[in-house]
């Protein structure tokens, strides 16, 4: 066939035409300014499949055993921790386009698919299973049927009655062992069906009982200390090893920071992260310097309103307001956080800033363990109960009965008749020593040159009722 005839056939019948033959429609036709390609006319978009075939291999040998249908759709709940990550530059700070993660203690909403006949089976039959939920009575326990028949022959009862009795007794015993219920006094006469199910989330730890078997329960510490830990520190370390949340309500200078340091070391051992929060930036800067000397520069970062240093570090120190913004902006770093330390948590009682602590505690994900540190919370049990009830987690309250480091008060009096410059007026038990105070008063009760008043009178006027 002549080449000219092939070109005519291709132009007339194969290639798309820039205009339609109808003269009325050709006036409205606008030819495209790009060249036409035949494969574009026959291409179709790839549909999104809800399931795909995956190879099933033997977990030991790795041999191919078959194939199974698995779901190819991504996580539908945007608040889930399994959702896709955002940009790497917003890993620590989050983004305004992201929504918060699912807060711990709040049950996730389950969509109602009962009205959809197509997806109704998705609620009962999981992917890879041939059937859905089954009744407990369908379970086949080895030797149970023979035991029921033997009991029926011995006692002359029906096998169905005996099986029902065994199932009822087994269910009741399992419930009694797994669920701890407390019976209300007003409900005791009404039977077991009216037992109260209120759970106590705060658990008071008795520090006075000691902790003699600490080294047996925790044989290898995540971070060794050059001194023997106090009892309340051992209790806190033990619960951190178990993954519990603790509230350390110890006296000032008792060593609450040791618990935070151990949490940082434990998270590094677990390849996770720890967030240390403080109410003011000055304290954050101080802890940043202290932790940098303890764990190294590469392992500690800080995030405040004006400072951002190593946000990818395993230990992040920040103010509570910064952590609140990270929670609301859905920062991806929260997936890797194991512990959150709230230093000076009594700031929650502040009228202006206390709401920040409440929001942060409520918004923390379920997998995060909470460490509360404070020396001035009077109602420790009540506060820990609120935290545990909010997060649906047990909180172990660890307190000290007395100040481990004694606190004494001295007065500087210069050289007195005994040669001492400092006179102790209040001892470690809080007892005011009157004779020592009189000695300090007499030591400074001398007229100074050029003044008409004695030094003792000047000291009394400066101190006022504080010293009395």
UniProtKB/TrEMBL annotation:
<dbReference type="GO" id="GO:0004386">
    <property type="term" value="F:helicase activity"/>
</dbReference>
<feature type="region of interest" description="Disordered">
    <location>
        <begin position="76"/>
        <end position="104"/>
    </location>
</feature>
<feature type="region of interest" description="Disordered">
    <location>
        <begin position="446"/>
        <end position="468"/>
    </location>
</feature>
<dbReference type="GO" id="GO:0016787">
    <property type="term" value="F:hydrolase activity"/>
</dbReference>
<dbReference type="GO" id="GO:0005524">
    <property type="term" value="F:ATP binding"/>
</dbReference>
<dbReference type="Pfam" id="PF17911">
    <property type="entry name" value="Ski2_N"/>
</dbReference>
<feature type="domain" description="Helicase ATP-binding">
    <location>
        <begin position="237"/>
        <end position="395"/>
    </location>
</feature>
<dbReference type="InterPro" id="IPR014001">
    <property type="entry name" value="Helicase_ATP-bd"/>
</dbReference>
<dbReference type="InterPro" id="IPR027417">
    <property type="entry name" value="P-loop_NTPase"/>
</dbReference>
<dbReference type="Pfam" id="PF00270">
    <property type="entry name" value="DEAD"/>
</dbReference>
<dbReference type="InterPro" id="IPR011545">
    <property type="entry name" value="DEAD/DEAH_box_helicase_dom"/>
</dbReference>
<keyword id="KW-0067">ATP-binding</keyword>
<feature type="compositionally biased region" description="Polar residues">
    <location>
        <begin position="76"/>
        <end position="100"/>
    </location>
</feature>
<keyword id="KW-0378">Hydrolase</keyword>
<dbReference type="GO" id="GO:0070478">
    <property type="term" value="P:nuclear-transcribed mRNA catabolic process, 3'-5' exonucleolytic nonsense-mediated decay"/>
</dbReference>
<dbReference type="GO" id="GO:0003676">
    <property type="term" value="F:nucleic acid binding"/>
</dbReference>
<dbReference type="InterPro" id="IPR050699">
    <property type="entry name" value="RNA-DNA_Helicase"/>
</dbReference>
<dbReference type="InterPro" id="IPR040801">
    <property type="entry name" value="Ski2_N"/>
</dbReference>
<keyword id="KW-0547">Nucleotide-binding</keyword>
<keyword id="KW-0347">Helicase</keyword>
<protein>
    <submittedName>
        <fullName>Antiviral helicase ski2</fullName>
    </submittedName>
</protein>
<dbReference type="GO" id="GO:0055087">
    <property type="term" value="C:Ski complex"/>
</dbReference>
């Amino acid at each position: 066939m002549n080449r000219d005839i092939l070109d005519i056939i291709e132009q007339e019948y194969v290639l798309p035409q820039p205009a339609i033959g109808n003269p009325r429609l050709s006036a409205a036709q606008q030819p495209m300014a790009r060249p036409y390609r035949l494969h574009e006319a026959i291409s179709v978009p790839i549909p999104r499949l809800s399931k795909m075939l995956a190879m099933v291999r033997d977990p030991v040998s790795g041999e191919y055993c078959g194939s199974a249908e698995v779901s190819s759709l991504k996580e539908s709940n945007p608040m889930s921790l399994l959702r896709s990550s955002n940009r790497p530059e917003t890993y620590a700070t989050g983004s305004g386009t992201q929504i918060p993660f699912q807060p711990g203690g709040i049950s996730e909403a389950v969509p109602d698919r009962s009205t959809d006949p197509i997806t109704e089976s998705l609620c009962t039959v999981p992917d890879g299973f041939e059937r859905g939920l089954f009744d407990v009575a369908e379970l086949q326990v080895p030797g149970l049927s023979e035991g029921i028949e033997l009991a029926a022959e011995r006692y002359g009862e029906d096998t169905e009655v005996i099986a029902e009795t065994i199932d009822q007794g087994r269910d009741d015993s399992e419930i009694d062992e797994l669920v701890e219920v407390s019976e209300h006094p007003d409900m005791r006469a009404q039977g077991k069906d009216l037992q109260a199910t209120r759970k106590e989330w705060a658990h008071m730890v008795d520090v006075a009982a000691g902790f003699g078997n600490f080294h047996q329960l925790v044989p290898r510490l995540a971070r060794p200390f050059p001194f023997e830990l106090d009892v309340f520190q051992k209790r806190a370390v033990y619960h951190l090893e178990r993954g519990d949340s603790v509230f350390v309500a110890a006296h000032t200078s008792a060593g609450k920071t040791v618990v935070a340091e151990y949490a940082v070391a434990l998270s590094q051992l677990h390849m996770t992260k720890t967030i240390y929060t403080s109410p003011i930036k000055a304290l954050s800067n101080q802890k940043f310097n202290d932790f940098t000397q303890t764990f190294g520069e590469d392992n500690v970062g800080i995030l405040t309103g004006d400072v951002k240093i190593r946000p990818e570090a395993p230990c992040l120190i920040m103010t509570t307001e910064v952590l609140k913004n990270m929670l609301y902006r859905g920062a991806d770093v929260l997936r890797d956080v194991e512990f959150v330390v709230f230093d000076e948590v009594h700031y929650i009682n502040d009228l202006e800033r206390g709401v920040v602590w409440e929001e942060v505690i409520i918004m923390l994900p379920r997998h995060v363990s909470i460490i509360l540190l404070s020396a001035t919370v009077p109602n420790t049990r009540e506060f820990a109960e609120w935290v545990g009830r909010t997060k649906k987690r047990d909180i172990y309250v660890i307190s000290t009965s007395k100040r481990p480091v004694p606190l004494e008060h001295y007065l500087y009096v210069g050289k007195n008749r005994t040669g001492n410059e400092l006179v102790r007026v209040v001892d470690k038990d809080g007892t005011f020593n009157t004779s020592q105070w009189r000695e300090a008063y007499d030591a400074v009760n001398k007229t100074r040159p050029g003044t008409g008043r004695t030094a003792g009178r000047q000291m009394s006027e400066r101190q006022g009722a504080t010293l009395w």
